[in-house]
From TrEMBL:
GO terms for biological process: potassium ion transport; proton transmembrane transport. It is found in: Cell membrane. Keywords: Antiport, Cell membrane, Ion transport, Membrane, Transmembrane, Transmembrane helix, Transport. Pfam families: Na_H_Exchanger, TrkA_C. InterPro entries: Cation/H_exchanger_TM, Na+/solute_symporter_sf, RCK_C, RCK_C_sf. GO terms for molecular function: antiporter activity; monoatomic cation transmembrane transporter activity. Residues 400-481 form the RCK C-terminal domain. This is Potassium/proton antiporter. GO terms for cellular component: plasma membrane.
Amino acid sequence: MSDQQMYIAVLIACGVLLAGVVAVRISSRSSLPGLLLYLGIGLLIGEAGFGIRFDDARLAYNIAVLLVAILLFDGGFTTRWSEFRPVAARAGLLGTVGVLVSVAIAATVAVLVLGVDVRTGILLAAMVSSTDAAAVFAILRRLPLKARVRTTLEGESGVNDPPAIIIVTVVVSDAWHEMDIPTMISTGLFQLAVGAVVGLVIARLGQSLLHRISLPSAGLYPLATLAIALTAYSAAGTLQASGLLAAYVAGLWLGNQALPHHASTEGFTESLGWLSQIMLFVLLGLLASPKELPAAILPALVIGSALMFLARPISVAVCLTPFRERFRTQLFISAAGMRGAVPIMLATIPLTQNLPGASHMFHVIFLLVVMFTLLQGPLLPRLAPWAGVIDRICPQALNFESSPLEGINASLVQFTVPKQGQLVGMWGTDLRLPHGAVLSMVVREKEIIVPDASLRLRGGDQLLLAVDSGLVERVQGRLSLLNEGGPLARWLVSGRNRRRLLDGDA
């Protein structure tokens, strides 16, 4: 590549990225989901638009999997464990058993109605059986959903990608002729289990490393955290396990620890998530050929209808009925099974293997995702109030920033008192910090205040605490509870518990 070609390539890439950023703004001011705009950008610059031809399915798949891994890491990092833990079993069932039920039902409809062979029917069903993390995070986080419902859907989108990829990979390969169903299931369970263990082990080792080193720049901590997640992803893949699940588990663990410069890292992962989302949809839009889409309309309608009105509702009922979930909530969760980049990415796998009819399957899935998004994007905000899954306005969460102090076993912890929260109006002495943690400074409207017994907190106050490194997580958890209010917060500041709190036992 000459210098001139490199400049043109960078110019095109930056133009596409800026168009993607503008598309985010357009989608936020309208009901049109952003992922459709990204796909449109890919089609526009492709062979039917500006004439850029891209048909390397293997390269597209490899890039897409890496981008999905980053998206899953971002999703895990921004998921609160306190919200995820109560729904982990539900999300796990939806992401495994739910996928198998959906594949079985949708594949049966494809074989009976479309007349395709069993292998093609399973592939079509498996490609769309997985809900998409990028679509779920982009659309559902705009709605003030109850934490249980939102976290169930987000957890499902993080768990069900690996099973879908395993099914498609096995069916496309020679293993389709060599393995029986029990062997396929045991292989899939092995990949999921090892992927989860690898993600957890590497995340815990990475956490220990981040706490032990004092880096010269705050910007190095987000880079190190990303490197830990991608190490988990690649290590699991090297072991023939699920790298995507490893990345999600690593993000879930690291995001719920008191990491140095946690707020900066979360902002960095959010930026990476947006970049990955834009690149992913533009890349897959670039791979599509508009002239092949008309022939895919009827199969897409059949598979999409079977999935939306039969396979998805049944799979949700099978997984959530044992938890006595309300019928309306089940209907919302069923309708909120967003399809996005992952199904299209899965449709590139048959292309890489030159499977007969692979191009037609790709465009069927591409068109199905577009139809699903056009339907679900405007529907969900109207369905959520009817289903009773809208949450009341709750206190703003505390965003902590911590930095280890070199040479001593202590960290500086900083946060801002939110405008909405129980900390507003609280006396500084009511924080009841344990021994080893000291409120050292308050910044109020650019004025530095030395805390004393007369200090009363206001919204917007910036608090700086010096904390023993072993107490950072305990202190942050206690302050979060105080801000949320409720019986536990009142117990924390009650006089009879003052001594226990000062001793660090509570």
